[in-house]
UniProtKB/TrEMBL annotation, chain A:
The keyword Transmembrane does not apply. One of its GO terms (cellular component) is ATP-binding cassette (ABC) transporter complex. InterPro entries: Peptide/Ni-bd, SBP_5, SBP_5_dom. It comes from Paracoccus salipaludis. One of its GO terms (biological process) is peptide transport. This is Peptide ABC transporter substrate-binding protein.
UniProtKB/TrEMBL annotation, chain B:
This is ABC transporter permease. Coiled coil: none annotated. It is a multi-pass membrane protein. Belongs to the binding-protein-dependent transport system permease family. Residues 94-291 form the ABC transmembrane type-1 domain. One of its GO terms (cellular component) is plasma membrane. It holds the Pfam family BPD_transp_1_N.
Amino acid sequence: MINRLLATTALALAVSLSSALAAETDVRIVLSEDLDLLEPCMATRSNIGRVILENVNETLTEYDTQGGGGLRPRLAERWEQQPDGSWRFHLRQGVTFSDGSTFDARDVKHSFDRAMNSAMTCETPRYFGGMTVTATVVDDHTIDFAADPVQPILPLLMSLVTIVPEETPVEFVRDPVGTGPYAVTEWTPGQQIVLTRRDGYWGEQPAVTSATYLFRTDPAVRAAMVQTGEADIAPSIAQTDATNPATDFSYLNSETVYLRVDHSVPPFNDVRVRRALNMAIDRAAFIGTLLPEGTEQAVAMFPPTTQGANPDVKPWAFDLEGAKALLEEARADGVPVDAEFTLIARTENFPGVTEVMEATLQMLQDAGFNAKLQMFEVADHERFYSKPYPADRGPYVLAAMHDNNKGDPVFSMFFKYDSEGRQSGVSDPGVNQMIAEASAATGDERARKWSDLVAHLHDEVVADVLLWHMVGFSRVSERLDWRPSIATNSQLQLAQIGFR
Amino acid sequence: MFGFIRQRAIASLISLLGLVVLVFFLSRLTGDPAALFLPIDATDEMRRQFREIHGLNDPLAVQFWHYLGDLARLDFGDSLRRARPAIEIVLEAFAWTFQLAVITMAIVTAAAIAVGALAAFRVGGLFDRIASVTSLVGASAPDFWIAILGIVLFSVTLGWLPTSGTGTPLHWILPIGVLFIRPFGLIVQVVRGSMITALSSAYVKTARAKGVRSGPIIFVHALRNAMLPVITVIGDQAAALLNGAVVVETIFGFPGIGKLMIDSILQRDFNVMLAAIMVTALAIFLMNLLIDLAYALLDPRIRH
């Protein structure tokens, strides 16, 4: 214990000294939750990705959500699909890892195989579900990925695989080594992580020399830290704290709030009832009141910056009388519209969720629905969210929030709308077919097919009750030239930060 | 004395074992850690593998048997979330909480005893009234409100102190200040009440009649006899701090054991949860032992 106390005291002095000596090009970023891991194969988890993704561990490709540039080269200079459907990636030369070793195709193969290894519980396999992918080294700077079935978006999927050296063990590491412009130079769990700019990076040298990540749970404290100069960026603060137009910014955060409806359970198996649900909710009334200005009404499960977004699909107009008429019509046909159902929502899902759900419930009741509200914490909510759905629960409509900032609807559509989708309420062979066709398509045809599916689900199937694309708030020091974007939810590239 | 300590140690060991059994099985009722650790769209196979790797597919009795075996070797297992030995994580956090608790309680004890004793000396006087009102307000003020108010006033408005963190001695002032208020209010009230009783006793009247000055009467004669209930309350408050000051740790970003315990419960990180409870239970046992020894030191009747 005495040793620990001495070590803690020494650390405090070191931190104090380092604060005093901080350069003007050092930045401090205050995050809402402490990191439990710094494992590269977990970098698609937003709290980890914000620190290491593309800062420490890079990917072969990179999806430009911020600039709208689509899929861009990163560690792969180019790629092409082979006649057999596999993808060949030509790797960047002259790249080194932060441990001094040289980057080559064997590192890529090891990174992929390691991330997919069942001995580890990485995030990566979730994106490669339903397919078998084999990596084959062609030469030092060329690697083939063969997928069964053939994957048209394999280059996009490679933007989710972080590259580590071949020597990295098949277990979670605490000192990630990567090819990125920064290296982890200090990690004091619960307190701070320091990334330092490294020499020998293959790309342009970033302006930020070092970044210290701090962790504070309370949003008011995070906002205050930027205000007092203790931090430069607080990527997530509360709406109520975002009061200074010079430093506080709102941004679409890639989260979509919706009500999932199980089409197999009466009365929701009747499309008129699903239409009535949509028409009963005055989405616009929430914006600027219970939800921040900038929140957008949703017509799809993914944000409008994603390929396949359909600008022709319009949000359901609030029409209380229309909803009542539809319910009356269904009732006359014997649909049990008076059956009680539960609106299930998750506590802490987003700021003000309880008030939003209570107002939603009131609107549904006004339209004639016999609904009640139940709020659950995350683990209990999960029992209703994913299949197998509880059979003894009676009819329910589930409020949930879904995040897709990966640039392609495929990361949402199968899970949410296919008959086999883990969180799907839909069982429609036509929809399954459209998802399969869009997933297999490429280029403009892919975008068009997703776009058609969005319209079909929204206007004809009336698959669910899409509500809002949410916004987040950031506070950024006036000395920085940086603005949050839809990517900020999952990554924060230090190389994109400039100084005024 | 050694017999007394041995007796207390055996009783505490039995309590600790009971605690392990209780927490082990109750924690398993909270649900499957795979549901929280893995992404929501993880496949059933990923979930099964996760449970297999962490021994969660075994029957509960088998898991408990393995856990007891590991515990006998002082192996608390690894954290599910952090992939590190649970006891390392817990001891790191406990070191912070321990420092915070010791410093806070030292200041609280000294200040509360002085203020309470002086207030009792002139009951109904100006000092007594001020001390009573401020201590009552302090004892009933909510931590989170005081903490936020402190940040707004001393950090944002005046710029005197950092908002949060642990880097320099200045970082400790606000957390200690917030933690100080409630136990200070409580202990002042107890010291005052206990001292009023002591000061009205026959031996104090005799001392006054013999011309002994106020200082020695208060701090030598009366205070020693008034300390027994005060020590009980100090022990109670210190135990609460050793369990972790969750609100203060959360707001000020102090990586202490209270926040760690809450996080481990919410994340179903069973090994960390059990290790944290064991460490704090052990600390509280040691502290209770110290309090018992302090009783014996102050009151010869207990010694004999």
